[in-house]
Amino acid sequence: MPATELRNRIAEHVESIALVNTHDHLTREDYRVAEPADLLSLWFLHYASSDLVSSGMPPQDLEQMRDPRQPLEKRWRIFQPYWERIRNTAYAKALLIAARDLYGIDDINRRTYRALSEGIAAANRKGRYREIYKRAGIEVAIWDVLDPRPESIDTAIFAPTIRLDNFIGARSRGEVAGLAAISGVDIHNFDDHLRALNAHIDRHARTIFAIKIGVAYWRPLRFERVGRGEAEAVFNRVMADLSQGVSMEEARPLQDYLMHHIVCRAIDHDLTIQIHTGIQEGNANLITNSNPTLLSNLLLEYPQARFDLFHASYPYWRELGLLAKVFPNAFADLCWVPTISPRVLRTALEEWIETVPGNKVSAFGADYIFVDGSYAASRMARQAVTDALCNKIEEGYLDEDEAAGLAAKYLRENPWALFGLDRWRRQRRKPPSRAKTRR
Ligand SMILES: [Zn+2]
């Protein structure tokens, strides 16, 4: 049988799968449509913008380039030389895919940027998220809201999570006061602090589908087992300080204690814990903080918990594969990887097919703030999954039925089960049905 026939058949099957997107950050739609949007202000909010800076663009030029109140021509002139430097990266390829498929524009260059920009501005209207998700074949996304009110979201396509980084990270009186406001619980002592955290989780537990922890952006993922007394003593120092609060180093035992507390609460509520591991967005961070093996003690201590470990822990994807292979409570999530490197997605899958049980991997999460990026990520993920499966068939490792079964698991069934999306299906706000509109 010719190889292209096989590829076409697998591609067609992969194309037919309604995706579960394990992670997206789309700005609330009412906020987005209230702001002007164009090529340079919207598509360079993140990712490709970090490549621009890494290629040499001064950060103040990035700010000017993104400012929609300045003339587009002037901003293009700032942008263009750096664009030439980054157009080889997968972040840039994602934008080129979105330009081609969603706006019918083949390239981003001095002849096309105005038309593309106008297209993006015209598309900045209500309903765009549903429209693009439909086009991408995304049924539902776990939505990392970056907004303390997950009840404000479109549950027809989003299943929300809440981030608890602010509860772990508070190390000044001002930050603690902010948590009191979010939770509705006055915080005077450590008991109150835990009560506030519990109240916040309890209030949202029935409407969220995961708890998100993103602290690897600012501390290592090793959370020691700390006695309550030690944590309370740090908390008391936070409350006694009238200026900046305590240092990051001093705050560590308190943060460690709170992380263990959160894992216990996630177990109580049967919620999966999504943890950022690996590559941090931006241009200045400590990658070693995000090594997933730092989580080993939590994985050992909480067999009842479910840990969904993000971004293939890139570049520690081998370590992540090992954790997912060994620990029943560790799950490997390839969100953001399609647009970091389709090659890494493909290679990781090819190895994990041999090492990790088929129920432990989720292969698609877009991780974008703007929906055109989510679309491009879906295209790149479907392609990389198709390539990985075809390679394994051609190696003689999988037969075609096995490959088709894995595709459905990786792109849909595994995350559906991991986040308990049957409940989402029951709770979701239904789009107006035909029967109703006829009546
Ligand atoms: Zn993210």
Automatic annotation (TrEMBL):
Q: Domain Amidohydrolase-related: where? A: 247-421
Q: Fetch the Pfam families from UniProt.
A: Amidohydro_2
The protein's GO terms of the molecular function aspect are: hydrolase activity
Identify this protein by name: Amidohydrolase-related domain-containing protein
Q: Where does this protein come from, organism-wise? A: candidate division KD3-62 bacterium DG_56
Lineage at the top is: Bacteria, candidate division KD3-62
